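Q: I'm building a small set of examples for a reading group on sequence design. Run inverse folding on the following structure and report the sequence directly after it, with nothing in between.
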């Protein structure tokens, strides 16, 4: 597996090494040892999938805080998407910055705790699979507005389909976020 560091501390593009022959290919999508060697999460408790029927469907930017903060390993199984991690860790050298990458095929994005995550689909009928390190906790779930001017995330296309929850997400409040982060550490 190839782990490509990104400009965001702890965020990696993970590219499985394909072993190909006349039948097609084989690749490992996860290897406990390879992730552990880099100090990355190796315990995932849930595997999720989503299907977006239309090109331009936006999901995110979502995160959980405190003890519910989660690591995500995201892969686009069918179609294509532009995947974004937004660093919301107050003590991170890349706080407030985002990183986006096109995912399709076997390429994955590793998103550590404390980062918001979201994507916009680049093709119809895009199916996303992702593993998470912590079960979903609605009480600790937060959404950052995809177009919050504080972060100026650069999306490759304007969202055409967006949920009510994501469209009405409030502006990011750094003081409130810091309080929630600190409360989660106590």
């Amino acid at each position: 597996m190839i782990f490509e560091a990104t400009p965001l501390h702890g965020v990696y593009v993970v590219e499985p090494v394909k072993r190909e022959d006349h039948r097609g290919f084989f690749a490992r999508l996860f290897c406990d040892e390879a992730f552990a060697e880099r100090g990355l999460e190796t315990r995932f408790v849930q595997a999720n999938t989503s299907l977006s029927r239309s090109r331009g469907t936006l999901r995110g930017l979502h995160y959980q805080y405190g003890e519910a903060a989660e690591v995500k390993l995201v892969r686009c199984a069918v179609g294509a998407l532009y995947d974004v991690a937004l660093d919301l860790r107050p003590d991170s050298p890349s706080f407030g910055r985002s990183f986006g990458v096109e995912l399709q095929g076997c390429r994955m994005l590793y998103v550590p705790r404390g980062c918001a995550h979201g994507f916009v689909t680049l093709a119809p009928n895009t199916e996303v699979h992702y593993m998470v390190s912590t079960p979903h906790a609605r009480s600790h779930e937060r959404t950052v507005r995809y177009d919050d001017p504080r972060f100026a995330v650069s999306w490759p296309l304007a969202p055409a389909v967006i949920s009510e929850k994501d469209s009405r997400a409030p502006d990011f409040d750094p003081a409130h976020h810091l309080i929630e982060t600190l409360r989660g550490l106590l």
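Residues 43-185 form a domain with the Jelly Rolls fold (CATH 2.60.120.10).
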